[in-house]
Amino acid sequence: MKYIPGKDINLGLIFTVLFGITIVGGFVKWPLFILAGIFLLSYIVLDRNRLKCPNCGNNYSIFRYYL
């Protein structure tokens, strides 16, 4: 059975946390919104390319394995 590497899951989690921090910080210093956009785009690219179910190729069923 194929699996999603842990480094990809951890990278997605890091992008999510950094996005949250910079979006909140963006209300204090508005240039942080640009950095938040970069983190969001990075997560979207990672999600489309690496965080798919290796067995069926769908995105929506991946969370079933980790919850």
Question: How would you explain this protein's 3D organization?
Answer:
The structure is a single chain. With 67 residues, the chain is an all-alpha fold. It is elongated. The mean pLDDT is 85. The longest helix has 20 residues, at 6-25. The chain has helices spanning 6-25, 32-49, 63-66.
* Oligomeric state of the chains present here: single chain
Low-confidence runs: none
Give the beta-strand count: 0
Radius of gyration: 14 Å
Largest sheet: none
- Give the overall silhouette: elongated
Distance between the termini: 18 Å
> Approximately what portion of the residues adopt beta-strand conformation?
under 5%
H-E order: HHH
Helical fraction equals: 55-70%
Q: Which helices and strands occur, and which strands form pairs?
A:
Blueprint: H1 6-25, H2 32-49, H3 63-66
